[in-house]
UniProtKB/TrEMBL annotation:
Keyword Thylakoid (UniProt): no
In-chain residues carrying the UniProt-annotated modification 4-aspartylphosphate: 76
Protein name, UniProt field: diguanylate cyclase
Catalysed reactions, semicolon-separated: 2 GTP = 3',3'-c-di-GMP + 2 diphosphate
Phylogenetic placement of the source organism: Bacteria, Pseudomonadati, Deferribacterota, Deferribacteres, Deferribacterales
GO cellular component: plasma membrane
Keyword terms of this UniProt record: Phosphoprotein
Broad enzyme group: transferase
Shown residues in whole-protein numbering: 104 to 426 of 436
Keyword Acetylation in record: no
Entry's Gene Ontology BP terms: cell adhesion involved in single-species biofilm formation; negative regulation of bacterial-type flagellum-dependent cell motility; phosphorelay signal transduction system
Boundaries of every GGDEF domain copy: 193-323
GO terms, molecular function: diguanylate cyclase activity
Amino acid sequence: DKIDESIIEDINEIIELYSNIDLSNSFIVAIDDSKTQLYFIENVLKQTKSKYILFENPREFIETLPHSKPDICILDVYMDELDGIEVTKIIRKYKELKNTRIIIQTSARENSLLRTLMIIGADDYIIKPYSTEELLLKIINNIKVKKINDELDKINKELFEKATTDPLTGLYNRRFIIEQLNILISNYKRYLVPFAVMILDIDHFKRINDTYGHDIGDEILINLSKILKETLRKTDIIGRFGGEEFLCLIPNTPSENLPIIISKLLNNIRKFKYKYEEDEITFTISIGCCNFTKKYKTDNEIIKCADDMLYKAKNNGRNQAFL
Ligand code: GH3
Ligand code: MG
Ligand code: MG
Ligand code: MG
């Protein structure tokens, strides 16, 4: 049915009817060097109840990035300080703003301009002069797309985490760590980027389970994971390989630095105490470590090398490393 304008005067009613979305949580930014145009846009934004900020100077807007995270940027093309094309390019450099919708307003429908807009990653355009309803329609539709894209990102992130993470410790799981190992192997073959593979295993872990129970065993695994994260670098890839065995990939570390990292790790674990009733539970680990070199062809070969070293460490009395 045709909606009679006289019946629906309140813009919010239109928004609700048309979109079923609440714009009050949306954040919209408009950048235009013309005060009159900004005033017009403000009148529309005010009625949507969204949060908004207006900028006459595009540079002042750029300074708020990427923290300000607008849902929509309404940008004028021609501005003295910095044109809408340049502003769009800057927004698109921030990966945290990849879903921010960019609506360009222009007074000419030039194909060369439209082509440029597509190339630089603008999402939409609106021809000046436009009406309140035109701008409103653009805002509502772009907010819808923004929300859908945010939702998809969230789902993807959750799926990725599920597929790559060990639920008990939050470390990477075996599958992901093997994938990463193969990436490092390719990088080594192509660019000779060095890396080391380290396998570590808790000594006599069965005793901890037998003495204190499986749940306390789990706590020890969680605490060991924390120590690994704290001791190794952010660029190191730490995974739970299975049971009480962990695999760490250490890229870009000269082999002479490996003993330093390893002794730091062994020390931090020796110092650790888990308080349980009257007891203080301690544990040790054994480590096998290998640098990747030309003599290895596959992931299995380098893992076997680290495993052989681990075996030596165990046989030599545990609580130590072989490399
Ligand atoms: P070693 O020094 O030779 O490594 O002795 P160990 O006792 O650590 O080795 P073993 O392989 O005999 O036992 C490993 C134990 O780890 C047995 C198993 O029940 C326990 N384990 C494996 N996964 C988990 C887990 O997720 N939680 C707990 N609590 N225990 C686990
Ligand atoms: Mg202008
Ligand atoms: Mg063990
Ligand atoms: Mg084991």
